[in-house]
Amino acid sequence: MSYKNYSDAQIEDLDNFTDFARSQLEPAERKKVDTILTLKLGFKEVISFIQNNNINDTDNFFWKSQLRYLYDFSKDTNIKVALLEFTIN
Question: Which of 1, 2, 30, 67: CA 20 to 30 A from 49?
Fold first, then answer.
């Protein structure tokens, strides 16, 4: 799927989700919907940035900075979920 097609699908999904968010929801449901909507908007912005800047190389820093799941090749069964990892000496 091209960036353009994916972006169009995201916009349609956001429109549908926004309609749902405007419906009558319980307070706990409202918090969940707000969180999901915020994440979806962030994902849309990332895809737009990638598309608008012709980022098509997985070695590009911006592309790598979006990764959240890392496979540890030294251990066959390890997948790391991380936003930040650093060492202080």
Answer: 30
